[in-house]
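Example (one chain per record):
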Amino acid sequence: MNFSAVDREMKISLTMKLEKLEEYLKGDVMFFFGSITPVQIQKYRFLLEELQVDKKYDTLYIILNTPGGSVETVERFVNMNRHFYKNVNFIVPDEAMSAGTVFCLSGDKIYMDYSSSLGPIDPQVYSQQQKMFVPALGYLDKVEFFINKSMQGTLTEAEFLLLKDQDLAFLTVCEQQKNLTIKLIKEWLVKYKFKDWVVHSKTNEPVTAIEKEERAEDIAKKLGDNKLWCSHGRCIGINILRDVLNLKIDDYSENYELRNLIREYNTLIIQYIQRCGFPEFFHTRKYF
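Predicted structure:
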């Protein structure tokens, strides 16, 4: 990549800010901006391998800004992360939606402040019929709505025509995506986020493996409940994540030193990305 003088200064400044974050967090830091797509897999692998050349820490922090994307790609990323790092933590300065939320739930910790948000999980599936990506869970909910109306004898002729034209193979793909997303969330929460959840905070009773699995399944189902969130783009902040989903979040709102380090870095790099019009962007101390 060719850099102008301004770009070179920006690179130097951003890398210095990232290295300050690494020093404070005692971990390698990767910045990720953009949708999560299969075409990123080779680049992502390269970035992780490059960090191992002078690896400083056993913990990886991912600063994530994403509207979502492919759950299968998230699974590939998670497998690569865990090959190199014992601990993987996520920092969400702004938002990590849909598949980005699934990605965060693979971490040991999730760092957010009062203005950060995750989102409902609804894997995006490409519809040949509509020539666009559609939310799988929303699509299944609508078909189920039509079926229920049919059983009650209240289905209109227009709704019948819409239901009749559904592609059964596509509906199967939507079901598979739904099941995969829930399966991955349950597996990752139990294995990583809940690994240190040993006793119940209120009763001090030991936490069983079954209780961890039940909590993980409840979180996955609630995140995928369109009736609860009403909109795929709904922002889910810290309070809802804690109170409704019973999900532990590391809140850095009052940790002014860490918040300033994250804000200064994130604000500057987002401004740079927007000025240049990049659809995606990665940054580590080794790559810009």
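Caption: The chain has a mean pLDDT of 89.
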